[in-house]
Amino acid sequence: MKNSDLLKITEDYSSPIYVYDSAKIVSQYKRLTSAFKQVKNLRINYAVKALSNINILKLLHNCGSGLDTVSIQEIKLGLAAGVPAKEIIYTPNGVSMIEIEEAVKLGVQINIDNLSILEKFGTLHPTIPACIRINPHVMAGGNTNISVGHIDSKFGISIHQMPHLLRIVENTNMNVNGIHMHTGSDILDIEVFLYASQILFDAAKNFNALEFIDFGSGFKVAYHENDIETNIEELGKKLSKKFNDFCKDYGRELTLVFEPGKFLVSESGYFLVKVNSVKQTTSTVFAHVDSGFNHFIRPMFYNSTHEIINISHPKKHKRFYSVVGYICETDTFGSNKRISEITEGDILAFKNAGAYCYSMASNYNSRFRPAEILWHNNQAHLIRERETMDDILKNQVQVSLS
What we know:
TIM Barrel, Lyase, Ornithine Decarboxylase, Chain A, domain 1, nine-stranded mixed β-sheet, 12 helices, 31% helix, Ala_racemase/Decarboxylase_C, Diaminopimelate decarboxylase
């Protein structure tokens, strides 16, 4: 997108505001499918938690994507977007059997990552296909909050518990049609991923009626110029060969499944904010903007780095700024960022704002969540209205305290 497009959106819809470029989402989807073109049966299930606006789900479904969901609400969003239940996988963590039973009734693919739940499910529903989530104990991810394959992770059934797992499957005679893993996000070394995949292939040999093997995702995208990203083309070449060889040994063609979220939508997103004031202290120049970690929590939560550009004056002399929000506690988007000279009223754009940004926004400090725009076919489409005071008060129940 051009700076002029983004500036026009802030003029028309005000700030703060999220903007997503549909063309980038589509191109990332095509890049991933192209990398694995040597696989006969490939399935992409978009991770809804990354960005759950129903229009994004529709866009990706039009590309051919299914959905990876982690809650009953995400399932219902997917169904509302027109995605068939058979194209939705449900991978909960620590939920009750009540929610799982509701998902069963909706007809989606169930993915289980707990031995206790596995035994209950197998006993109650021995004929309903179930996938099993394995923890290979292989660490990936740039931050402990998004590295989920380690020994102390709450996710998945430990590979070391395979004998117990197999006893449950045998005793309940349950229908296992898939096996799954997820090592974490921001994969830097594809050899680590390939090592984990071999563990999953070895585990898959224990099941004779598999339809698919799900390798999760966690592919890293570039957050700034010359940043390291997952070499998806090299991974496609190497993993495709391993997968095809496994299918040959297994005796039939299985489906290779991925569940990308960030990879598909992160780079499509821009978060636009207006500079309220520029404050010089004895050691720092602060650019105060009209938002906070209530809207964009990743820098505070994950210590993530997002490129920030002054789209109002991109060619001015660059100076160092700490860009901060209006929340009444430490609320820093970036420290000592080299940005084109900032004046009050300028519009700043945070890049890579498509994944885990709006979906993690809140009403902290009773602030309104921002609007969302989809830039599609060179036009801005409002896909979520900015909240109002009515939204803040909607579910509050006032009682008489006299």
